Amino acid sequence: MTIIDLKPVKRCANCFRLIPTSMERCPYCQGTGYLKPEQRALTFGQQQEEEPHIHFSWNDLSPITKRYIYIGLAALAAIIMACVIWSNVAKTRALNKSIFETLDESVVESQTEKDQNFAKFYKEVRELTGYITSDEDQEAFKDISYNDFFDFYNCYSSQVYCNDIKEKSEAEYGKKIMDPMKTKVDSVKAYWDKYVNEHDISNYITVKAITTFAEDWGGDNHPAWFYTVKVMKGNVKDCNAKVEFKDNSPFAEPITDNVNLAILKERNSKEKCTYLTNQYAYGDDYWDSRSVEVTIQDITLNNGNVIKLSDIENVPPSVTAYLADSSEDNTCHLIVETIDNQFPFKAKYTYDAIIAQLKEKNPKCFELVEKVEKATKKEIISKGFEEPSITEVAQSVSLRGAINGEYDIVMQLSIADKVVTGSYYYLSQGPGKRLSLSGTIDDGIITVKETYHGTAGGSFKGRFRDDTYTGIYTDANCKEMQFELE
User: Is the Cα torsion angle 132, 134, 140, 143 positive or negative in sign?
Assistant: First the structure.
């Protein structure tokens, strides 16, 4: 009878070999799980067979099994895709609603997760449609869906989209609009260069008053001055000059005198100066708050021609600005005032290009936005572009409308830099009773005051936008009334 010595065993946690339970460390892997090649087939001193392992390989599967697996995976993918498509279709169907209908909060939230602009878009659309109250208007715009308007909105409010149009139109403006006008502009410049050279009195003669003091027989000092005369062109026969003594002291009145060329040349030194007998000067700082100005009103040339100071006022303001600075903006003003009063400014040209592109994008959406914003006088839908100011689009503008909705008027305004001039009349009185206007434009706000035969009257203050001038008219009695002109 054979006696078998059985020992209790356990399995190594690292290499999974059977070892006696009395051993704390595995003799095969030493507790590391790694077996040396010579140890891989050893047991407790004798050769043992490796424990069998089950290996799985795709190639071991039968063709029919593989086919079923393929079919199952394809079906799973189809189900997932169908769910995704159905979800998107459901959301798309929701956006096919008319913008006059509200969207579920879940739809707004899901769309906002996809595009952060959607929340802002939805808020602005709800405000926009709130102003469309008549059945006729709602019927006209009811076919606009959220999908349509959101597509339009992403262009209308995109600075990138609008700037791209602007850059292209600016390049086109230079080639097609400005370049063909160059010859005409040069001709106008040559004409007015010659005119200014011939009619600017400062090209012929300049006079300056030098202030000093003169002592009378009693030893008192009086304010005095003499003249330095410089003749640039030797054909000046005579001149008429206005001399004005100005005292900046409170309540002081200016003292004026008219002198001719002979007197100006005669009083050319301190010894031959002019002094005021009724004015006394004490201290060297007397002239700190006083001055003497000489303005030549006209000159007579040797050939008998008379050149007046007012002659230079015949030069159009735009020409004066262009001769000082031939910038593109000044060039446009010159063209409008002297060549073609319909000539477009660059800002207006690029603005019109953007508007035309947006109209073409979706005419109905654009019409809706334009209708509401014109009626409310405020921007509801965010813009990716800026509207040009009146100084960028017009040199002069003719307007017609009413004060307080009942006093019909016609107004003409001209703008040069930030100076505004013009006139207006009441239709009930006719153009024969025009009131003069003068003022300024600052940050898009036009303020002009009226005068009639030198008497100050009321004033207009408002903003020019979308070819419309609106604001407050204040009459001579400080009564305020709304006005709207276009």
Answer: positive
- Model confidence at 45: pLDDT above 60: no
Mean pLDDT to the nearest integer, 227-251: 86
E strands of 274-365, at which residues? 274-275, 290-301, 306-308
Mean pLDDT computed over every residue of the chain = 82
Q: Cα(226)–Cα(449) distance, rounded to whole angstroms?
A: 41
d(CA 102, CA 119): 13
| Upper half-sphere CA count for residue 121 (Cβ side, 13 Å) | 25
Phi, psi angles (nearest 5°) of residue 396: -145, 155
Closest CA to 297 of 230, 252, 244: 244
Dihedral (CA of 233, 234, 240, 243) sign: positive
Query: According to the model, what pLDDT value does residue 298 have?
Result: 92
Structure tokens at 337: 């005032």
How many whole angstroms separate alpha carbon 327 and alpha carbon 321?
Answer: 9
Which option is the CATH number for 391-485: 1.10.533.10, 2.60.60.20, 3.90.198.10, 2.40.160.90? 2.40.160.90
User: What CA–CA distance (Å, rounded) separates 168 from 165?
Assistant: 5
For residue 91, the one-letter residue type is K
Of 51-60, 194-203, 288-297, the one with minimum mean pLDDT is: 51-60
Q: For the chain, how long is the longest CA-to-CA vector? A: 168
Cα separation of 16 and 180, whole Å?
94
What per-residue confidence (pLDDT) applies to 360? Answer: 93
**Token pair recorded at residue 204:** 């012929």
The sign one gets for the Cα dihedral 425, 431, 433, 437 is positive
The encoded tokens of residue 281 equal 């000067």
Looking at the DSSP assignment, which residues form a beta bridge with residue 465?
A: 468
Tell me if residue 3 falls in helix, strand or coil.
coil
What is the Cα–Cα distance from 228 to 205, expressed in whole angstroms?
11
- In this structure, what DSSP letter does residue 52 have? P
* Structure confidence at residue 3 as a pLDDT band (50, 70, 90): low
Burial category of 163 from C-beta neighbours within 10 Å (exposed 0-12, middle 13-18, buried 19 and up): middle
**Cα–Cα distance, 253 to 247 (Å, whole number):** 7
User: Rg of the chain's alpha carbons, rounded to an integer?
Assistant: 46
Beta bridge partners of 295: 242
What is the rounded distance in angstroms from the CA atom of residue 371 to the CA atom of residue 129? 11
* 448 touches 437 (CB < 8 A): yes
Please state, in angstroms and as integers, the Cα–Cα distance from residue 154 to each residue in 147, 381, 406, following that order. Answer: 11, 11, 42
Q: Where are the domains of the chain?
A: 1-46, 66-148, 201-304, 391-485
Cβ contact 441:425 at 8 Å:
no
